[in-house]
Amino acid sequence: MRKGVCSLVGAAIFMVSACFLSEAHDDKRTRMSHSCCNMFEGSWVYDDSYPLYNSAACPFIRDDFNCVKYGRTNLQYLKYRWQPNDCDLPRFDGRDFLRRFKGKTIMFIGDSISLNFYESLKCLLNAAVSGESKSKVETRKTHHNYLKDYGVEVKMFHTNFLVDIERKDIGRVLKLHSLKNGDVWKQADVLIFNTWQWWGRRGQGQPWDYIEHDGKVVKDMNRVAAFSAALDTWAKWVETEVNHTKTHVIYQGVTPSHYKGAEWGEPGVRNCLKETRPIKGSTYAVGLPVGEKIVKQAQNRMTKPFYLLDITRLSELRKDGHPAIYSGLNTMDCTHWCLAGVPDTWAQILYAHLVSGIGN
């Protein structure tokens, strides 16, 4: 097993590295030992023991993400495992996860990328108890699932912007300095936030008519500046309203889309439809999205801890992992991710982080 270097940035603020329990196999038994490394630097390697579950056996996958159900025949994308440079990422252990988080609530808060992640975690946990009585898993249409015998609740709170949209006489107003759902969120023990993909929407896809910023209502403004202001509002809420002795805050890094082949060295490619393999190595030509940079800037200004699940770069390398035309959306989708697939690796890293900290 490879060893790594664990670095903590600031006062208990984890950025791209963490100590975690890493597994090694010996005579078909699993030994767990402590290791430290940067889990977000590495490359994708082919591993025939993957995927971690059969999508056909998971009842939680929306048609949007169910690529095998909708006819994807090249299934090589299922066989890749994330390999950090300096350590081995522990394989997801659903039973261990359920045992450690008995009596706890985990809440995903964000847009459909959060939903993608949420359903991945539910499928991984479902696979861990799939041999048991079906009565042990209760599913609800409100997108939350309670594993009764384990006392673990996993919820999804859908919000595209984190900050509020309110209906006024003039229309729908996106309020960059208003966050009214926090009392609901902070009831959970683990909060996993995400927002970015809706900030650039325009025309019919834009779910607001005006923006309220610094006490002024405007028709529009620079979207990057708007995102930054909203993220500052969220960060202030995290620092002033969250009880950090009870609640663990995680921000899911910005996930990329793959519509422009020039971004990965194939200028003639216009979408992800024919992509069947990850990008080799560990670098992505165009670097990080501007949204990810703003997230890190906001984190650096904070004094209270939150963990950045920095999955941007590893996801950039997976141009092959999107539904494309293989979903119930009847459109080209190179933004979301097939399940099983890339979000399962996000869940593995989440597991590694949680069992090293509050999960113990």
Descriptive overview:
With 360 residues, this protein is an alpha/beta fold. The chain has one domain (18-356). Helices cover 22% and strands 21% of the residues. It is built from 7 helices and 15 strands. It has a 7-stranded mixed β-sheet, covered by helices on one side. A 4-stranded mixed β-sheet has the order 9-10-12-13, with helices on one face. The longest helix has 19 residues, at 223-241. The radius of gyration is 20 Å and the shape is globular. The two termini are 22 Å apart. The model is unreliable at 3-35 and 133-143 (pLDDT under 50).
Q: What is the strand and helix layout of this fold?
A:
Elements: E1 18-26, E2 29-37, E3 42-46, E4 80-84, H1 94-100, E5 105-110, H2 112-128, E6 137-139, E7 145-147, E8 152-158, E9 164-168, E10 171-175, H3 182-185, E11 190-193, E12 210-213, E13 216-218, H4 223-241, E14 248-252, H5 290-300, E15 307-309, H6 312-316, H7 342-356
Parallel strand pairs: 5-8, 5-11, 10-12, 11-14, 14-15
Antiparallel strand pairs: 1-2, 3-4, 6-7, 7-8, 9-10, 12-13
Helix pairs in contact: 1-2, 2-7, 4-5
Provide the residue-averaged pLDDT.
86
Order of helices and strands: EEEEHEHEEEEEHEEEHEHEHH
Tally of helical segments? 7
| Structural class computed from helices and strand pairing | alpha/beta
Radius of gyration: 20 Å
Count of spatially separate domains: 1
What is the helical fraction, as a range of percent?
Answer: 10-25%
Largest sheet: spatial strand order: 6-7-8-5-11-14-15
**Outline, from the CA principal axes?**
globular
Q: Distance between termini?
A: 22 Å
Binned strand content: 15-25%
Query: How many β strands by DSSP?
Result: 15
- Point out poorly predicted stretches: 3-35, 133-143
Q: Mind summarizing the main beta sheet? A: 7 strands, mixed
